[in-house]
Design goal:
Layout lengths: L2 E4 L9 E7 L6 E2 L4 E6 L4 E5 L4 E6 L5 E5 L3 E6 L16 H13 L15 E2 L10 H10 L7 E2 L8 H9 L11 E3 L2 E3 L6 H16 L2 E9 L1 H13 L9 H15 L5 E4 L2 E4 L5 E3 L1 E3 L2 E3 L2 E2 L7 H16 L5 H4 L4 E5 L18 E14 L5 E14 L5 H16 L7
Parallel strand pairs: 16-20, 20-21
Antiparallel strand pairs: 1-8, 2-4, 2-7, 3-6, 4-5, 6-8, 9-10, 11-12, 13-22, 14-15, 16-19, 17-18, 21-22
Helix pairs in contact: 2-3, 6-7, 6-9
Amino acid sequence: MAIEIFMPALSPTMEKGTLAKWLVAEGDEVTSGDIICEIETDKATMEVESIDEGIVAKLLVADGADDVPVGTLIAILAEEGEDVAEVSVPSAVPAAAKEATAVVAEAAPAPVAAAPVLSPAPVANTSSDRVKASPLAKRMAEQGGLNLSTLTGSGPHGRIVKADVEAALAAPQVSAPAAAPAVTGDNSFRDEKLSNMRKTIARRLTESKQNVPHFYLTIECRLDRLMSVRKEVNEGLADSGQKVSVNDFIIKAAGLALKKVPEANAQFHGDIIRYFDRADISMAVAIEGGLITPVIRGACTKSLTAIASDAKTLAGKAREGKLMPEEYTNGTFSISNLGMFGIKEFSAVINPPEGAILAVGAGTKQPVVADDGSLSVGIVMSCTLSCDHRVIDGSVGAEFLKAFKGFLENPLTMLV
């Protein structure tokens, strides 16, 4: 009996995906664990493995097909001993699957018996369309300083593949005349199609601002002691090759503050508020085309070095598009740090169903007045907590920030 393969849900928020590339062809034999395709989700481009064995009988969705609904029938495998030629597309498939299959069928030419198999003609990519390229080709082009929109793809449907990038990098570089920009009035512009990730960011954050009653609390934290302790910690870690960043201290302090004020470690779920015992902190990481929030699990109990190791690993995987769904979902609280860009203060949008997000600015040298009236220069950092008023009241948010400030300004309390 034929084995049906459907578009998988690769993240909890995924409703549709782009079938970026098939890594098998009709007639290929696959075994369990073989990577059969690459799918672009709302978070990243991920490789999909086959869980069954068989012969690829039919590929029902073409390379580069956008907005394929989760649950759509995308391929059929023939089992051992089954005649591939006799495998047919089942008529009783979900409506979404029928629709997607029909769209692909219209776009692809009908097969002709005994006709020679020809490679599709290369199709030039234009700057006004999303450039279709394999993940490897994108990485090679980025490393080589190559603009993919200037290349002609030799892969299916004009997709740029490794060989195209290698050929472009090896060829002599000749300056080409600039293409005439599109113009409206006296200003030029370009249109860029939204990626699945950007669509999801737009939808979720619009819903958040429309449906979540935000309020904001700002506090200033002195970092002088923290900077001194961090220097000593990193000197002690020199032989291990590890380093602890200010952001690692911030994550640790937030985790401990959530443990101390558990009412802030909460989510809104309709007619209930869910309170968590463990602080699983989502840290915002900027990646190409958007933003993703890998999660530091148990930040309230982990050591600074463990947090530093997790943060480095997760941020690296995020930028390479290799995060697994369990690594960027189900956080209980978020932190967005723009201090490294010199931003002094900002307000972040809550990521539902989480009840709060902490926006961290840059630590800057400022005049500070001591309790005795003396004036000195200190390193001061502004932090703004965005709260969902359905979950967190002003007093709870204030208690959290007070605890957070206490840990940051007395960093030795985070080391015991």
